[in-house]
Amino acid sequence: MPLRRSKALVKWIYENQHKMQTLRRCSSTLRYKELEESSVPSLEPVAEVAPAHEPATKPRPQLTPDISFKFDDLQVTLAAPYQLQKKPEAIDLGFGKYFTDHMMKINYHRELGGWQKPEISPFEHLSLHPAAKALHYAVQLFEGLKAYRGVDDKIRLFRPDLNMQRMNLAAQRSGLPMFDGEELIKCITRLVQIDQEWVPHSETSTLYIRPTLIGTEPTFGIIEPESALLFVILSPVSAYYKTNSDGAVSIYADPNVVRAFPGGVGNRKVGSNYGPTIEITSRAAKLGHQQVLWLFGPNHELTEVGAMNIFVVYINEDGDKQLSTPPLNGLILPGVTRRSILELAGEWKELTVKEEVLTMQRIADLNQQGRLLEMFGAGTAVVVTPISNVGYLDTNIPVPTMQQHNPVYQRLKDTLLAIQYGHIEHPFAKVIT
Ligand code: COI
C-alpha cells in the first residue's frame, strides 16, 4: 500500500475507532487477525441488550457440598528456584509487608457451573477488569488467621473452622458465593505446608493467612456478581501495633464517628468496615493515641477498639472481679480470639465472665470509684493488647491495666500463646505438619 494511503487509513482508524464496536470487542490476537482478513469492519455499534423476557440474574443455587470447590481437585504449580524470595529478618517483618512464594486462587463463574478447581501457584499479581464490582462497590470480604510454629517444630492453626464459618456468613451478606469451609481449610493447609519455611522459627512472629473473596464481574449493576475470586496469601508478621514503652496503647473515643450501626455489617469481616476508619485513626494519632475506641448510640456504648474486640475488667457490685465484653448485637465482629477468651476465662473460678452493654458513663464511674482494673483489645492480629488510657470528650481516663498484680489480660495472652505455640495441648489448636 502506498505510504500516503496507509497514513490516511491510520488517521481514519484513529478518528473513528470509537465507532468501531467490532474492533473494540476484540482483544485476542486471533480476533485481530480475523479482522485484518475481513474486508470492511462494521461501523454500526452492536447493541448488547438481553431479551426482555430473560431475568437479569439466574437464581443462585443453594449451598450444598457438591457445588463447593474440592480439595481433591487442587492443582499445584510450584515456584521455580529463581522465583523463590529471600526471607526477611524477623526484626524487619512488621505486619503484612512481605509475602511468601506461593498463593492460592479459586475462581467462581456462575455460567461455568460455579466454583472452579483450586490452584496453588507462584505468588503473582492479580489481573482485574477495571469494572470489577470489588473495585467499585466493595463487594469483598476477608479473613485473618495465623499459622504458628510450635515449641515441637509442628505448625498449628488456631480454630480455623470459626474463620470459615464467619467467611461464609460474610459471603452470604455480600452476595458472594458460599463454599464448604472444610475444603478451604484443607487447601490452606496444603498452601502453608508448601510455604512452611516461611512460618517464623520464633514465638514473637507468625505466618498470617489472609483468605479474601472478591466480586470480579465487570459490570456496574449493584447485583450479585456472576464471577468471583477467592484467593489466599500468606505473610510472615510480627506485632501489629506500635505500643507505648510499657506495652500498652492509649485509645481515642469520638462519639461523632461510628464504625457500625444496627442492621449494617459491623458483625461481618468485610473490607468496607475498615477503610473508613483510617481518617479518624490518623486524627487519633495526631492527638497522641494509637487506636480508636468505637462508640455507638446516645449512651456512648463501647463496641470495638481499632480492629479488635474490647474487654473490661472491674470489681462488680458483688465485690467480684468481672471480665466483660459487649454482646454480639450486630455491631460487634464475632472474633475468634473474643470467643476463645470468653470460653477460657469462663472456666476460671475466680472470675465472673459476662457479655454486657458497657457505656462510657459506666467506665468513668468505675474509674472514679477505683473499681476499673483493666481494659484490653483482643484479635487475631494483636492477640491481646492492654489499654492504659482513654481520650474522651476532652478528658483522659487513665486505666490502671499496667499497675495490676497478675493482670487478667496477661494471663489470657499467655494462655492463648501457650495453646498456639504448642506449650499446652488444646483442642483449639490444629496441627497441620
Ligand atoms: C485480625 O485481627 O485478623 C484483623 O482483622 C486485623 C486486621 C484487619 C489487620
UniProtKB/TrEMBL annotation:
Residue positions, PTM N6-(pyridoxal phosphate)lysine: 269
The keyword Ribonucleoprotein is annotated on this UniProt entry: no
GO cellular component assignments: mitochondrion
Catalysed conversion reaction: L-leucine + 2-oxoglutarate = 4-methyl-2-oxopentanoate + L-glutamate; L-valine + 2-oxoglutarate = 3-methyl-2-oxobutanoate + L-glutamate; L-isoleucine + 2-oxoglutarate = (S)-3-methyl-2-oxopentanoate + L-glutamate
Presence of the UniProt keyword Amino-acid biosynthesis in the record: yes
Top-level taxon: Eukaryota
Pfam annotation, one family: Aminotran_4
Alphabetical list of PROSITE patterns matching this protein: AA_TRANSFER_CLASS_4
EC id: 2.6.1.42
Keywords from the named record: Amino-acid biosynthesis, Aminotransferase, Branched-chain amino acid biosynthesis, Pyridoxal phosphate, Transferase
EC category: transferase
GO molecular function, one term: L-leucine-2-oxoglutarate transaminase activity
GO biological process: L-leucine biosynthetic process; L-valine biosynthetic process
Cofactors, names only: pyridoxal 5'-phosphate
Family the entry assigns: Belongs to the class-IV pyridoxal-phosphate-dependent aminotransferase family.
The protein, known as: Branched-chain-amino-acid aminotransferase
Originating organism: Leptidea sinapis
